[in-house]
Design a protein that fits this description.
The chain has 348 residues and is of the alpha/beta class. The chain has 13 helices and nine strands. Helix content is 41%, strand content 28%. Pfam families: PIN_12.
Length: 348
């Protein structure tokens, strides 16, 4: 199994920690395969890491300042935070370690690619596409990946990229015909979850007997799954709250006052329906993915200081039909862990 990855995979998960990305490493290890990462992808992911960390750190410090306004005790973690440079060093060392373990191969690009890149840019050949400002780097990534696959006659090549406009055919599933002229060895998947779910024949080679038995035993009723999700509410409640904060302006009337202080609370989360769930057996882990509908009770307290005293306005409400997709793992002892929120949206 030879897995080639694009920046889209690492943008929100630079250390391959989420349930499905983590298991890519188990797969290539168990199947004597390799993950190929373009140097362009690695450098771009490093820059994305810097930007995301700076944004998250600024938001964290802002939230702490806000907390300190209302608290009798003061929190100060600024001196305890790692510097951005230290996090970047961790990132570099992480992939150096994977490379030393022969799980990852960092793929450099060649200066000899330049004439071909220029030619494709002029002729608007794939991966060049109208309106995309990242075409140059996409072309370097593709040329380096396709060259390795052809030169080393690799089989079972999978390219994980969510860059539909540049790499995919009109069906949004297969490699674009112009790119197949470079190499027809690649099967494309948008995220690692889809690869794991669709390449059953390859993955089955490394499944152990006890996990196969446990996999067959895992059958949830809606009631059982709702209870498990309720018990693990803390694992997704904070991300649900963050989502509500983002959309709060569309939920509340903000025209009455220009408030100086606003406090939003998520008072309760009720699971209304289980849409579907599925399970995957990967290496030494079982991953369960579940899609469900919630109803959220929230309140919003807004304050404005005036000459005649504080004016307060409180609004409460219920948000229906917030859809969540979460995943979690089951280990060989049948314990559920590693709960993660994969997606949140409102159903109209």
């Amino acid at each position: 199994m030879n897995i080639f990855i694009d920046t889209t995979l690492l943008y929100t998960d630079p250390f391959l920690k989420n349930n499905y990305n983590r298991n890519l490493l188990q797969l290539v290890d168990g199947l004597n395969g390799k993950i190929f990462i373009s140097k362009v992808v690695l450098e771009e992911s490093k820059e994305n890491l810097k930007k995301n960390l700076e944004k998250a750190q600024n938001n964290l410090l802002k939230d702490i300042r806000e907390f300190n306004k209302y608290s009798n005790s003061k929190i100060d973690i600024k001196n305890d935070l790692k510097s951005i440079d230290q996090h970047v060093k961790d990132f570099e060392n992480y992939y150096k370690n994977l490379e030393s373990r022969d799980l990852v191969k960092i793929v450099d690009y060649k200066n000899s690619y330049l004439p071909e890149v220029v030619k494709r840019a002029i002729q608007r050949k794939k991966p060049f596409a109208p309106g995309n400002k990242q075409e140059f780097r996409d072309c370097l990534i593709w040329l380096s990946y396709s060259e390795i696959a052809e030169r080393d006659n690799l089989d079972n090549c999978f390219f994980i990229t969510n860059n539909v406009s540049d790499f995919y055919d009109s069906d949004n599933e297969s490699l674009h015909p112009e790119l197949r002229k470079d190499s027809s060895k690649f099967t494309l998947y948008k995220i690692s979850k889809y690869l794991i779910q669709n390449e059953e024949d390859l993955i089955s080679k490394m499944k152990n007997k006890r996990l196969k038995e446990l996999f067959n035993e895992i059958i949830f009723t809606d009631k059982e799954l709702a209870k498990l999700l309720n018990d693990q509410k803390k694992s997704y409640k904070s991300e649900l709250f963050d989502y509500i904060i983002k959309i709060s302006s569309s939920l509340f009337d903000m025209s009455v006052y220009k408030y100086e202080d606003t406090v939003i609370t998520l008072d309760n989360v009720i699971i209304k329906d289980i849409n579907n769930w599925e399970k995957d057996l990967i290496g030494n882990e079982i991953i369960v993915s579940c899609n469900f509908i919630t109803e959220c009770w929230i309140s919003k307290n807004m304050f404005k200081e005036r000459d005649d005293g504080s004016v307060a306005n409180a609004q409460t409400g219920k948000i229906k039909n917030i859809e969540l997709t979460v995943s979690f793992s089951a280990n060989i002892k049948g314990r559920y862990e590693n709960f993660e929120t994969d997606n949140i949206s409102i159903i109209s």
